[in-house]
Amino acid sequence: xxxxxxxxxxxxxxxxxxxxxxxxxxxxxxxxxxxxxxxxxxxxxxxxxxxxxxxxxxxxxxxxxxxxxxxxxxxxxxxxxxxxxxxxxxxxxxxxxxxxxxxxxxxxxxxxxxxxxxxxxxxxxxxxxxxxxxxxxxxxxxxxxxxxxxxxxxxxxxxxxxxxxxxxxxxxxxxxxxxxxxxxxxxxxxxxxxxxxxxxxxxxxxxxxxxxxxxxxxxxxxxxxxxxxxxxxxxxxx
Length: 238
Prior knowledge:
Mean pLDDT: 87
Strand content: 15-25%
Helix content: 25-40%
Largest sheet: 7 strands, mixed
Distance between the termini: 33 Å
């Protein structure tokens, strides 16, 4: 088989701020379970992490030191590290995403180049000035290794300049990504909570049952929400 055509799922499981364990092996197990339950095709499941306890036995763990360069969301820059033992195409998925259907179409869409999720918020796009959301992206290491080298040389300056996350920084250095269809990867806050209120059925106080759009493959969480704290029974089921 041509190893350059291998499909690698990549996640990052990193301690949160203030050394709390916001992401743990439980979230990695849930992500792998969601992918496998939906029959998603991939060759390797790779987790870049500063933890080992409780991780699935059939994944590849890559260690990431718990150092200031990798603080919080900045640990995602490591997915562009040219030294990673990864060959082929990569599909990065945040651990606070919820896979709700088979995602094989994400491998096949716009072949040959990097593809990202467009920002679903006009505020982010217009006020903060960046186009892409970094919750889900398909790429090859060579597409973005220049970002890894740039960050490595001036990470302290970059963390100060971009205090609200990695996305504005990576957008400014990304000149070639295309965008996934917005119907495939939807945002919980903007599609379900705002646009989808009329589709929701209130089961009892503070618990709701949403109806996901037919073409939805992944639900992305942002704005402080987390799927494991979500009272939406549809999200909990998935």
